[in-house]
């Protein structure tokens, strides 16, 4: 019996050590700001130059949503853009100082006054988005065709659409030199897009290494892509030049967003189970999981403040899930951030929070 107790104690100590070692590292939660407000949420975007943080909040009881705008330094609310239908998030052009809500219609707004400039009718179902400084354009992604609507950030005109991505786009990254990379969530590949012609040049297959890739980040200098996938839960690291897979590393949860910080040479993957995996790029051929950090349950999307090197995530507190009905309800039309991915109760009032991670 004594030997058994000693063995169990040693096993527990070893497990605790492994958990600590996995979670130990340079990053920690610096601040959690409970900013409150009603409505579901999806994406968060930092405007590092304008010192603004944009968060899309869905409407209550079927009403219109809004973009909440916070001071990126203090996290205090500084404004909002109302009447954004089926909104997921927003991005902004530092050149034209115009913002764009991924909603239907797309709402174009002034980033200084937050006044609506115009609404832009688009087809499909706007979801993810990307601002590309290469030619000052905004890409509105959709799981249904057209898979991408491209908007001129200066005047809000539709430049064109991309219909041949080959599947449902989830997240995109740009090299700022004329090439856009888009992870195709339902086809397990990365589409390579010519930003000048709006045509697809190639597809990089990650089948077997990672499926359902929902996060994508890019090391522009070394031309390395980080595809954060859900099935299996891996970060697939591949060459942006030719799609050659360089490494596959485990993630701590199902990803819904990826980032890369060129100043620290680190990639980040945020997960709905409240973990953040940090991967260190030691060289263009050497990568390692540096840390798995506990953040906040539900903090599945993230953004990078490139001036402070802080990673910001959004989450909320929820009541226990209700008892399962005899007949399950139909899935939510958009699913994301609105209870459509099941297993939780109602959001607790004013529990919406912004989590700041840094060293």
Tell me about this structure.
The chain is built from one helix and 28 strands. The chain has 359 residues and is mainly beta. It has a four-stranded antiparallel beta sheet with strand order 1-28-27-26, with no helix packed on it. The chain has a four-stranded antiparallel beta sheet with strand order 2-3-4-5, with no helix packed on it. A four-stranded antiparallel beta sheet has the order 6-7-8-9, with no helix packed on it. A hairpin with a 5-residue loop joins strand 11 and strand 12 (148-152). Mean pLDDT is 90; it is low at 1-21 and 332-342.
Overall structural class, as computed from helix and strand content, comes to mainly beta
N-to-C order of helices and strands: HEEEEEEEEEEEEEEEEEEEEEEEEEEEE
Widest β-sheet, arrangement of strands: 1-28-27-26
What is the first-to-last residue Cα distance? 45 Å
Number of helices: 1
- Provide the low-confidence segments as ranges: 1-21, 332-342
Mean pLDDT over the full residue set: 90
Helix share, percent: under 10%
| Biggest sheet layout | 4 strands, antiparallel
User: What percent of residues are in strands?
Assistant: over 45%
Oligomeric category: single chain
**What's the gyration radius in Å?**
20 Å
Q: What sort of overall outline do the alpha carbons produce when their principal axes are compared?
A: globular
């Amino acid at each position: 019996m004594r030997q058994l107790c000693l063995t169990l104690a040693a096993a527990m100590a070893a497990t605790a050590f492994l958990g600590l070692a996995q979670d130990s590292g340079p990053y920690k939660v610096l601040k959690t700001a409970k900013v409150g407000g009603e409505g579901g949420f999806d994406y968060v975007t930092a405007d590092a130059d304008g010192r603004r943080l944009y968060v899309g909040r869905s409407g209550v009881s079927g009403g219109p949503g809004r973009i909440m705008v916070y001071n990126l330094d203090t996290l205090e609310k500084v404004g909002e853009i109302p009447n954004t239908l089926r909104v997921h998030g927003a991005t902004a052009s530092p050149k034209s100082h115009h913002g764009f809500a991924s909603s239907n219609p797309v709402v174009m707004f002034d980033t200084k006054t937050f006044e609506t400039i115009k609404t832009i009718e688009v087809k499909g179902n706007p979801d993810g988005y990307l601002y590309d400084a290469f030619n000052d354009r905004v890409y509105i992604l959709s799981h249904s065709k057209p898979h991408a609507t491209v908007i001129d950030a200066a005047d809000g005109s539709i430049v064109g659409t991309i219909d041949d991505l080959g599947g449902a786009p989830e997240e995109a990254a740009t090299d700022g030199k004329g090439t856009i990379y888009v992870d195709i969530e339902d086809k397990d590949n990365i589409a390579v897009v010519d930003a000048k012609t709006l045509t697809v040049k190639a597809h990089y297959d990650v089948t077997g290494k990672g499926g359902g890739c929902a996060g994508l980040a890019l090391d522009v200098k070394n031309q390395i892509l980080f595809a954060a996938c859900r099935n299996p839960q891996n970060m697939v690291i591949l060459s942006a030049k030719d799609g050659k897979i360089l490494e596959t590393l485990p993630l701590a949860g199902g990803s819904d967003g990826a980032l890369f910080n060129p100043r620290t040479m680190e990639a980040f993957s945020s997960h709905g189970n409240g973990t953040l995996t940090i991967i260190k790029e030691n060289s263009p051929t050497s990568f390692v999981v540096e840390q798995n950090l506990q953040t906040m349950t539900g903090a599945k999307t993230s953004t990078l403040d490139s001036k402070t090197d802080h990673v910001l995530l959004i989450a909320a507190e929820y009541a226990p899930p209700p008892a399962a009905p005899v007949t399950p309800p139909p899935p939510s039309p958009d699913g994301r951030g609105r209870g459509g991915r099941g297993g939780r109760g109602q959001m607790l009032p004013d529990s919406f929070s912004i989590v700041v991670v840094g060293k």
